[in-house]
Design goal:
241 residues; alpha/beta; Oxidized Rhodanese, domain 1
């Protein structure tokens, strides 16, 4: 009896999976797509040229305070382990809504064993609220990606750091590069790592009151920067992609 019940449950689950995969999910396939495809981002970045930095060079810049090292991975990954002098502003966040398309997105990601995320549409503004436009930015993700075409590729190797560079350019930042090999290469080269929430005070040349103002703006900022009349808080714990 128990064996028969288990068989029915297995058949039912297989049937539900089949229906969902081939009939329900395709009806909402547009909800799995981002508004901007990687091909478009690749072509935009290729036309402007984006410099990649080796991890040691990126570390030297963030240690000296000449650049801000920006980690765009999920917040929980950042808290688990990150470059010692980096700030966290995730490019992706966990899926927030529970409507049918969002639930299907979760199910679709789960089917492939992937954590369900969605693009952080406020990413550019989030960075602008913390880093002056005139500051050099070095972006880091898990593996870095590349705009070079190798092994027959046509559009390089996409990554979150390259996508982040594109959105930062759209937000008005000019001096942006990314870490070749990402945090994975950083670890392989045994550069300093840290754990837990970010500490902006640990980033040379950048305080928690940094603003979206250009560095050559001569207004008095001794009282700290406010956006929309609110003082910007320190990000203690963020979850994202």
């Amino acid at each position: 009896m128990l064996r028969a019940t288990g068989t029915y449950w297995a058949l039912g689950a297989a049937g539900a999976s089949f229906v969902g995969t081939f009939f329900v999910i395709p009806r909402f396939k547009d909800s799995f797509k981002e508004d901007l495809e990687w091909r478009d981002i690749y072509e935009a970045l290729s036309s402007t040229g984006v410099k990649q930095l080796e991890p040691k060079e990126a570390y030297a810049k963030c240690k000296s305070g000449s650049a801000v090292l920006l980690d765009v991975r999920l917040g929980n990954k950042y808290e688990a382990s990150h470059a010692a002098c980096s700030l966290s502003t995730p490019l992706y966040n966990p899926i927030q809504k529970w409507d049918l398309p969002s639930t299907l997105r979760r199910a679709g990601f789960a089917f492939f064993g992937i954590y369900g995320t969605e693009l952080n549409t406020n990413f550019g503004d989030d960075v602008l609220s913390r880093v002056p436009k005139g500051k050099q930015l070095v972006v880091m993700c898990e593996n870095g990606g590349s705009l070079e075409n190798k092994s027959g590729t046509k559009y390089g190797f996409q990554s979150r750091s390259l996508k982040a560079v594109y959105f930062l350019q759209q937000a008005g930042f000019k001096n942006i590069s990314y870490v070749s090999g990402g945090i994975a290469e950083w670890r392989r080269e045994q550069l300093p790592m840290a754990q837990g929430p970010e500490d902006p005070a640990a980033v040379p040349g950048l305080s928690s009151s940094s603003s979206s103002r250009d560095e050559d703006d001569d207004d008095d900022i001794s009282g700290g920067f406010r956006v929309g009349g609110l003082r910007l808080p320190q990000l203690a714990s963020v979850f994202s992609r």
